[in-house]
Amino acid sequence: MSETALGPLRVLDFSRVLAGPFATMLLADLGATVIKVERPGTGDDTRSWGPPYDAAGQATYFQSVNRNKTSVALDLGDPDDLAQARALALEADVVVENFRPGVMERLGLGPEVLLAANPGLVLCSVTGFGSGGGAALPGYDLLIQAVGGLMSITGDPAGEPQKVGVALVDVLAGLFASVGILAALRHRDRTGQGQRVEIDLLSSLLAALVNQGSAYTSGGTVPARMGNRHPSIAPYELVPCSDHELALAVGNDRQFAALCEVIGLPEDTRFATNPLRVAHRAELRALLEDHLGKRPAAEWAAELNAAGVPAGEVNDVAGAFALAERLGLSPTVDLPRPDGTSVRLTRNPIGLSATPPRYETAPPDAPGQLTLPLPGWS
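Request: output the structure for the sequence above.
Response:
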């Protein structure tokens, strides 16, 4: 096995569903030893979130964020199991949990207790709305997308607010959690002192609104749904061709001039600059539909890409993976199961020249692979 970036880091993972498990999977991919704590019998909620299932009957949702981990089944309501969980935490470098605020404290696993006994510990808590006024609120991705403003800027302006087609807020929170954990570990490397990392889904979403958020905070503008259009760039949308839609992402005047040359759009002072194109968005859209509607999307995409204009067909998920394969990006990895079969999952996108991500084990088929106690686990 090649050297890993985070070996021999030890991570105890109490988290369930998506945000926390996604963060710990990223750490596991980079070499950390991750023990996932699951409920006896049922395990993580997502073990039952199906269909779809793979050929071995495993829920693909669970598989998506739990590779490179081992599992231990502990009933935290049982004193003996709780004692074993505490023993594991005291030997860990990182503990990750996404219980509601106050649960870890009631279990005797709160940050004050754990940090007092293990001063170098990094304890990451992922919540829905923080540990203050929103502590009692449930943190489900759909709910956060709704109350956090994302649905208000997603979808057709004439239709209802729409959620993104994946639990995006959980993914973002998992990314922020992994960055926070790594920053805390860097601090521990210098000082020997651990700390608490706090991530909440609502704040993660607000931070990820980027330009739409600053439109409000800095510009006093409340963004609204615009379908596939962009509030600040034109043309940056889907345009119908003779068969189906073409995605156009024209980001500057040079690209727009190249677009006009390829599709035969005559020079027009209304569209000379991006602010003018935004101001005359409807007129430009009509001209683009007229010109692009004469030929198939694939033909236009090939010609426009050759001219340096960002354009592409709208793929389904299968088409997206096929594109990545054609481009040599190797989007999937096969991980072995104990029975000799394997499961195919999306690879980690982080490329490291010296310490690349590892792909050693499939997600645990059932909770409770490990036998406790594990003194000095590594």
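The chain has 14 helices and eleven strands.
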